[in-house]
Specification:
With 159 residues, the chain is an all-alpha fold. It contains 9 helices and no strands.
Length: 159
């Protein structure tokens, strides 16, 4: 809490004037994160490039500043707190982002740029599960793993 208060330029007691407790802060941050992430992902998926390039940009857009934060000293605590108190928010935000990826996949498939079996929604959900699956300690490897995941999926879709 002291680090968070310092990051936003206020005292710990001042934080509690706006939020009931640490869980309320985590829920609010998670809501803001997903609202911003959806906009960034939508924009990234409109960019030109190979499927691998677009996926990497979109994955990075989904993660936003979280990529650097989870590699920091409070990364594990942030990940656990966000999921423990914001399950519904995470579920809704993830569904919105999966829908964005599904639309991109379908559009790319219709133009012949990529190929895959099954429903676009299922492929998008698996992609998001894979992205979430690499968010494991040690978090310092996450950035590299995100690149590897995007390249692997992008190249696989391009076959």
């Amino acid at each position: 809490m002291a680090d968070l208060a310092k990051a936003v330029g206020m005292s710990r007691p001042a934080l509690y004037q706006y939020f009931r407790n640490k869980e309320d802060i985590a829920r609010s941050l998670t809501e803001v994160y997903f609202a911003n992430a959806a906009g960034r992902v939508a924009q990234a998926l409109q960019a030109k490039g190979t499927p691998a390039e677009v996926l990497e940009a979109a994955f990075r857009a989904k993660m936003g500043k979280l990529t650097g934060m989870i590699a920091g000293p409070h990364g594990e605590e942030l990940m656990q707190l966000g999921h423990s108190v914001s399950g519904e928010v995470v579920e809704q935000g993830t569904a919105r982002i999966v829908a964005l990826f599904a639309m991109w996949l379908e559009k790319q498939r219709l133009t012949g740029a990529i190929h895959y079996e099954g429903a676009s929604e299922d492929v998008a959900r698996v992609m998001m599960n894979a992205l979430n699956g690499i968010k494991v300690p040690p978090y310092k490897q996450f950035d590299r793993d995100l690149t590897i995941l995007a390249q692997t999926l992008g190249r696989g879709l391009s076959v």
